[in-house]
């Protein structure tokens, strides 16, 4: 039980994607114009990530090592197509809002990265916990970033007016430049917080988590 | 050799299984998706071109065969107190950057159009896309069911610099009028009370 | 002709694939530490994006559309792209070793580069003809390469300046990318 909780909870803070493990930046930047969109994207990722971890883990013993990646891609892509169909059937406005970033979940490094780094080595239950935890963490991050940009960009949060009448929204926040700068500042704040915590405990300050494809593990680059 | 066979078997098994699952899911969600697309893509245009109905045109839609061809057309009815007073149907014509889709509304009693709305459109932003704007489409509201561009002797003013887009929209409206004329006899009986 | 020119300029500057469309950000941040790496990655993207968009266009036109299997687009495209990347890698290794030496290490990365898949899907959603697909994907690849090289040049300079500890690495790179994106906003008025 405690092991299960450990695998689940690491996605919520210690390995929080995409702030602690810098992966899958495109949807993070693209769909966080509003908190709603960020949350919706997060839900789709939870679905795909949890199930892909479960399936990959279930077949890990019968897959020959050579076609491992191909199998992961087929599993992830099938789940993404399932999400596309379900979204069109039950949440069409969200599907329109997220646009091409719904099919692009399949190339999000988080999905294949977790399959390769965790699910292909662990039991079904642990893999499910890992995928679900990472997915929930990703959803929290996206909703937070979306909320931040929506609050300053439109003066609203989840569509309801928060800022006073006199507030003039900065349209900068909802455009592409705002997305980059906003994510950069949030990342820096996270780093500053972690460093402070470590200093308090008397530990040496670590290097910042960098984005490199090693974390993905797929390509061995 | 053994390894290769195993590879092929596993891969095709996974592909087959996922293909089968997806096909099933597609079948299960097909109707729901069609309805959602109609509600969110065609829906706004329908509420633009038909006014004063108390039913749901998307839910009550019906397909009609166009006499003389093997094509079908989806017709959206506008009912008030269970009585049909108008219909809308969508037609397409080739524009500058692809198909221009136009939703055309008809009053069932008279021969007048109740309005048109542009549904799909990939014209040059700012020029051709002005056919989607009020100024152009409002010319059709209450217009007799015979349209022609002013450059060809009619009374619809095209958009300067966007001849192809204007012509395409008018072509689509003409098509719709033509189809409406052909299926008109079938319409009244299709949405009587209780059906 | 004018149409193609506009498409080209728009794909490189106005709707730059990274700076305005939010595609391919992982390699954009991940491989922009050195100019030499950026040039290699950029050329690999130009090459693969053009080929992938052309092949997926044909797959959609001659396989998915006639069979009514449009809903399998995502699945088919990713498999085609993955296979293509493998194939290109093998081909370059055998036939053009110098090119393989320059691009080889970037090729495996490209399967999960959402710019490649994104460009292929955009071409379908915009209903491009084959000619336009080739022009658009090539120009988008060039746009990616340009943004990547400019960012890596900036980051090489930042490397030797004093940046607050918490901002080092990815955060400052993202903020630089934001400023570049703001600069590219100026092109919006052009078309």
Short description:
The complex is a heterotrimer of chains A (221), B (195) and C (191). Chain A is an all-alpha fold and 221 residues long.
Descriptive overview:
The complex is a heterotrimer of chains A (221), B (195) and C (191). Chain A is mostly helical and 221 residues long. Chain A contains 8 helices and 2 strands. Chain A is 62% helix and 2% strand. Chain A has a two-stranded antiparallel ribbon with strand order 1-2. The longest helix of chain A is centred in the middle third of the chain and has 30 residues. In chain A, 56% of the residues are buried. Chain B is of the alpha+beta class. Chain B has one domain. Chain B has a 5-stranded antiparallel sheet with strand order 1-2-3-4-5. The mean pLDDT of chain B is 79. With 191 residues, chain C is mainly alpha-helical. Chain C has one domain. Chain C is 74% helix and 0% strand. The chains are: A mainly alpha (221), B alpha+beta (195), C mainly alpha (191).
Topology (elements, then pairings):
The complex is a heterotrimer of chains A (about 220), B (about 200) and C (about 190).
Chain A: H1 2-10, H2 25-30, H3 35-59, H4 68-90, H5 92-98, H6 109-119, H7 124-153, E1 156-157, E2 160-161, H8 176-200
Antiparallel strand pairs in A: 1-2
Helix pairs in contact in A: 1-7, 3-4, 3-6, 3-7, 4-5, 4-6
Chain B: H1 2-49, E1 62-65, E2 72-80, E3 83-94, E4 99-107, E5 113-118, H2 134-137, H3 163-190
Antiparallel strand pairs in B: 1-2, 2-3, 3-4, 4-5
Chain C: H1 2-14, H2 25-30, H3 35-67, H4 73-95, H5 97-103, H6 107-110, H7 114-125, H8 130-158, H9 170-184
Helix pairs in contact in C: 1-8, 3-4, 3-7, 3-8, 4-5, 4-7, 7-8, 8-9
Properties at a glance:
heterotrimer; B: 195 residues; alpha+beta; five-stranded antiparallel beta sheet; 3 helices; extended; C: 191 residues; 9 helices; 74% helix
